[in-house]
Amino acid sequence: MLDIRETPQYQEYSIFRHDYFHKLLAWKDKRVIKVITGVRRCGKSMVMTELCKELSKSIPYTNITFLNFEMLENEELQEYHALYTALKSRIQPSSMNYILLDEIQLVPQFEKAVDSLFLLPNVDIYLTGSNANMLSSEIATLLSGRYVEIHIQPFSFQEFQLGYEKRFPNNNLDKESLYTKFITYGGFPYLHNIYEQQENIREYIAGLYATIVLKDIQQRKKINDTMLLERIVRFTLQNTSNLISPKKISDTFVSAGKKTSPAMVEHCLSALCETYLFYKINRYDIKGKEILKTLEKYYAVDMGLRFFMLGAKTGDEGHILENIIFLELKRRGYQLFIGKIDTLKVDFVAIKDAIPHYVQVSLTVREEATLHRELRPLLTIKDNFPKTILTMDNAPATYHNGIKQLYALDFLNGEAL
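and the corresponding structure tokens:
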């Protein structure tokens, strides 16, 4: 068992994940299991550690148990009977106990131990995991009505700025320069320690990518064709802003002489999403108010991974911006779809509290023809819900027939749609 004061994360990071921490803290002592999910090394352990630090201000250390299953010393507890016995023995009978289990997906059938512990009246349980399968239908059924998911991403642009400015307080870079660094380095929290060390950053991301692909995907999903998996990653990254399907990807590969099938491509895409390397969103018919089952988009979890795989390419800036806007909208709790209105496309239908926000993303709309093209789908929508165009044109917010045009970096720095 690990004393929280000894955890590596306790000192490693210096950027407080304010939003995630308070989301987690809001569920303290509630009778639900808190499940913290996200791609490897996005900061799940850091947020959990911050919670432990907060708990330790008023709760004895004997009432807080933190286990990281990636640590060799906890290997013997990667069996659910042993895990349950060990945790049960630490329960203090007359007060609340806090159990925090990091990378819980490494324990086969962990849900049996967790479910039994949850039945105790004085136990508050927090889990982290890097694989979406830990919320599969079987586990969700077992924990039905008993868990809440708190999903964590790598640093947002705001958090990246805080980290960079703290690391280099005398640089005084403008927002545009910081944005360029953000889409190059990406937002994995550990990179805060090695900003501007290009080779170290490349090696760190290469190692992280290899771990996710080789350890989390190939071993777990039994995908032996590494080259096919990497081709799918590259194709998906290159087509961030395009509607695609497993059949379309398969046909592209077959025409280039690479043998595969739509079923195999779909299997690989599913694995990439399960490890949170990509997020999939479906199309939504705005007029018919229904989710469409054909064609979808995939967005990468981090731009540093994209830069590592593809490098910098002229013409990619708009795709990158759309990806970053997707991540920010998701971070703010919107349910996201690709909008379809007649034959026109709306980049995002972002729904929160049952209210849709229609969002277009364009690198620039300074030319009249481009502005008209971006406005046309939004003007076709006849309801009165908010409509916004986000661009990299650095100017104050303006309106076009009630449609808000907003500087994307202002939005990424916290301004509302």
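(Above: one complete record from the training split.) Residues 198-221 form the longest helix (24 residues).
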